[in-house]
């Protein structure tokens, strides 16, 4: 009896200890879950806070102008009339110019690094490209203003004007006078800033292509070009698109570099060489001296529009990346 | 005890008392206009060594300065664009001009020396409206007989950022050109009919220097420091004047401050033969009943010191001190309007 009692006592002790340990695990798991959950929720709350602030700040402007704000091309603090089209136009056009230049170059860099580059050079070139992403935008702005703009003004823009003088459409897009700064210069600067994003993401997704596929291609007598265009690009199409979208997100929101070289005129120019403005440049330029409520509110509404544009672009890119991940897991 | 020892003891005692005073020194905080920042910080440094009181001025722009003083987050606010009397009353503020500067048109034309081109207000307005497109336009030639003007196209450069400089410049153009007033108007940022926008005085200066045929406007100090070609102007009295410290001071002295409630007066196009037409003052905003009375009192002491002793420092940075007659008016306003919680004036 006594033996059993002792034994069962030990059994009870062991069971209790086991239960304690298990509860401990469970507790730690629960705590960990809540910790990570709250981290995720904080991000959502912050995002919600930003949206709420922007919406709240734009109410006076929305009350005054309604949806006319989006369609009336006027920005006149002297009379208290505000509208977004010029800034939205500049934002979109400079981003398009940037993507047209940056996507082929960024893809080229990524293809070279993953498929063609000698191993010894991969790291230095990759690092150099990524360093481009690390340069502060104000430095790009200064470089653009002091080096790139005068160069474009003296050598490139007169050439473009002469070259396209008799070509329809292009003679409007490349009409003088060559100021050196303007939409085209801003687009160029943005392109340089976006290239590292496109090339880094593309390189990473190119690395996800199974070697087996490529070897099969080479086994069938494909040239390197055929392997890249028929296997690598189709396999990673969506991922590359995601990288492009991330770059586009950066181009849309870039402020300082653009402010320096875009010319800051509240107009919708037909020529790419004419000065224009972007949403972020307008906000950065005018916010500090914007005194009355409607002025500030209009600037905040511009910010809200930019937020919506960027949000849509980035959401699309996230969706595409998710599709790629599913594809890779298949 | 020798005289030397006495002096030493005196010195040490002085240092100790000085340290105690410094420890009890008041911190004055201010925020606002960027234009007067260099002189406010220079004054603050000199004032701190003299009295121990320190001034912390954040140059966040006039808009920010006005918002911060309305919310009573700082001891004083600073703005380049004076507030209307109604706004002052609504927010319980007093306002006065603290220091002045001049704005000058700058140009970049081959073979044209500083001050050898004369412009008048209406012509300047037409240039900035884009109606006068080349330098050999008859309107410019008429004002400059004897000067060989090139046929270069005019490239207009203006400020891109909101600024008191733009406010005063466009205010001047509005006063001299009905056309400008109707089409553009005056504000810290306006819808410019032509030209490119550059950031800050340095941006405008740089773009004018880089572009042949350019015309822009910058603060006098920038034109001097960058050795830029400025123009002379024909003022309201019809006289040709060059931008000089004397011409700016004349504009301030000839202005009718006594009949300007709340010192709401813009110094452009003031009467007088010697007045430079684009002169600008920058203003201080202070609550009539400050929450932090010691800080407000210290701020008023600082500004009085700046009026009395800060002139040479201002001139060394190409600012223009406020004329003595106006300072008397300002000090009277302080005594009349700035009251403590007990209803008594903070300073006499």
TL;DR of this structure?
The complex is a heterodimer of chains A (330) and B (348). Chain A is mostly helical.
Description:
- The complex is a heterodimer of chains A (330) and B (348).
- Chain A has helices at 2-65, 68-71, 85-116, 119-134, 137-164, 170-173, 183-206, 211-219, 224-253, 256-261, 279-286, 293-329; strands spanning 75-76, 81-82.
- With 330 residues, chain A is mainly alpha-helical.
- In chain A, helix 3 (85-116) runs parallel beside helix 7 (183-206) and helix 5 (137-164) crosses helix 7.
- Mean pLDDT of chain B is 88; it is low at 16-23.
- In chain B, the strands form two sheets. In chain B, strands 1, 2, 3, 4, 6, 7, 8, 9 and 12 form a nine-stranded mixed sheet that branches. A three-stranded mixed sheet of chain B has the order 5-10-11.
- By secondary structure, chain B is an alpha/beta fold.
- Chain B is elongated, with a radius of gyration of 23 Å.
- In chain B, helix 5 crosses helix 7 (164-176).
- Helix content of chain B is 43%, strand content 18%.
- Chains A and B meet through strand 1, helix 5 and helix 11 of A and helix 3, strand 7 and helix 9 of B.
Outline the low-pLDDT stretches of chain B.
Answer: 16-23
Counting DSSP E segments of at least 2 residues, the number of strands of chain B comes to: 12
The 3D shape of chain B can be described as elongated
- As a whole number of angstroms, the C-alpha radius of gyration of chain B is 23 Å
**Structure annotation, total helices of chain B:** 14
Itemize the secondary structure elements and their pairings.
The complex is a heterodimer of chains A (330) and B (348).
Chain A lengths: L1 H64 L2 H4 L3 E2 L4 E2 L2 H32 L2 H16 L2 H28 L5 H4 L9 H24 L4 H9 L4 H30 L2 H6 L17 H8 L6 H37 L1
Antiparallel strand pairs in A: 1-2
Chain B lengths: L2 H21 L3 E6 L4 H15 L2 E5 L3 H9 L5 E4 L5 H6 L2 E15 L10 E3 H9 L8 H6 L11 E5 L4 H13 L1 H6 L12 E3 L1 H11 L3 E6 H6 L3 E2 L1 E3 L5 E2 L3 H10 L24 E9 L5 H17 L1 H6 L7 H14 L11
Parallel strand pairs in B: 1-2, 1-3, 5-10, 6-7, 6-8
Antiparallel strand pairs in B: 3-12, 4-8, 4-9, 4-12, 10-11
């Amino acid at each position: 009896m006594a033996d059993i009692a002792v034994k069962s006592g030990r059994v009870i002790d062991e069971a209790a200890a086991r239960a304690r340990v298990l509860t401990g695990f469970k507790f730690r798991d629960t705590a960990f879950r809540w910790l990570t959950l709250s981290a995720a929720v904080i991000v959502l709350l912050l995002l919600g806070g930003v949206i709420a602030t922007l919406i709240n700040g734009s109410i006076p402007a929305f009350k005054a102008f309604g949806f006319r704000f989006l369609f009336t091309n006027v920005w006149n603090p002297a009379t208290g009339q505000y509208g977004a089209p010029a800034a939205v136009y500049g934002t979109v056009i400079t981003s398009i110019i940037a993507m047209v230049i940056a996507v082929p170059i960024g893809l080229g860099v990524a293809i070279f690094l993953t498929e063609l580059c000698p191993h010894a050079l991969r790291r230095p070139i990759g690092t150099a490209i990524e360093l481009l992403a690390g340069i502060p935008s104000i430095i790009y702005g200064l470089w653009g203003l002091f080096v790139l703009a005068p160069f474009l003004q003296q050598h490139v823009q007169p050439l473009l004007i002469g070259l396209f003088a008799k070509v329809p459409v292009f003679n409007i897009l490349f009409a003088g006078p060559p100021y050196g700064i303007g939409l085209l210069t801003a687009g160029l600067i943005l392109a340089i800033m976006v290239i590292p994003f496109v090339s880094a993401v593309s390189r990473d997704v190119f690395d996800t292509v199974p070697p087996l596929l490529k070897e099969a291609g080479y086994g069938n007598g494909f040239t390197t070009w055929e392997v890249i265009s028929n296997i690598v690009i189709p396999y990673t199409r969506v991922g590359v698109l995601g990288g492009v979208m991330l770059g586009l997100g950066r181009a849309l929101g870039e402020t300082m570099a653009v402010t320096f070289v875009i010319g800051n005129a509240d107009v919708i120019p037909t020529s790419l060489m004419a000065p224009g403005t972007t949403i972020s440049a307008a906000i950065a330029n005018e916010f500090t001296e914007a005194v009355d409520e409607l002025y500030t509110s209009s600037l905040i509404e511009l910010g809200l529009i930019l937020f919506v544009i960027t949000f849509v672009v980035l959401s699309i890119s996230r969706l595409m990346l998710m599709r790629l991940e599913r594809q890779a897991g298949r | 005890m020798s005289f030397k020892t006495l002096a030493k003891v005196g010195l040490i005692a002085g240092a100790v008392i000085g340290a105690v005073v410094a420890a009890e020194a008041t911190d004055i905080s201010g925020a606002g206009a960027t234009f007067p920042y260099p002189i406010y910080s220079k004054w603050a440094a000199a004032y701190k060594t003299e009295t121990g009181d320190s001034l912390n001025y954040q140059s966040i722009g006039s808009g920010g300065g006005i918002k911060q003083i309305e919310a009573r987050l700082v001891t004083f606010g600073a703005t380049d664009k004076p507030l209307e009397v109604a706004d002052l009353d609504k927010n319980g503020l007093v306002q006065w001009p603290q220091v002045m500067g001049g704005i000058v048109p700058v140009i970049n034309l081959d073979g044209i020396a500083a001050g050898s081109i004369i412009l008048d207000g209406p012509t300047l307005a037409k240039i900035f409206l884009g109606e006068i497109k080349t330098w050999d336009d008859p309107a410019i030639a008429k004002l400059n007989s004897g000067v060989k003007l090139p046929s270069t196209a005019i490239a207009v450069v203006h400020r891109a950022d909101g600024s008191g400089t733009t406010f005063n410049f466009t205010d001047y153009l509005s006063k001299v050109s009905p056309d400008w007033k109707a089409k553009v108007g005056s504000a810290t940022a306006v819808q410019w009919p032509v030209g490119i926008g550059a950031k800050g005085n340095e941006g405008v200066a740089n773009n004018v220097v880089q572009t042949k045929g350019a015309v822009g406007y910058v603060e006098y100090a920038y034109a001097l420091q960058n050795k830029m070609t400025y123009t002379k102007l024909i003022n309201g009295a019809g006289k040709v004047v060059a931008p000089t410290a004397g011409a700016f001071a004349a504009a301030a002295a000839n202005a009718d401050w006594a009949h300007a409630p709340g010192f709401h007066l813009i110094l452009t196009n003031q009467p007088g033969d010697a007045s430079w037409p684009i002169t600008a003052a920058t203003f201080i905003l202070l609550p009539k009943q400050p929450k932090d009375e010691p800080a407000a009192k210290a701020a008023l002491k600082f500004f009085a010191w700046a009026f009395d002793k800060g002139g040479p420092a201002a001139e060394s940075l190409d600012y223009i001190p406020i004329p003595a007659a106006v300072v008397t008016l300002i000090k009277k306003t302080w005594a009349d309007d700035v009251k403590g919680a007990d209803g008594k004036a903070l300073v006499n």
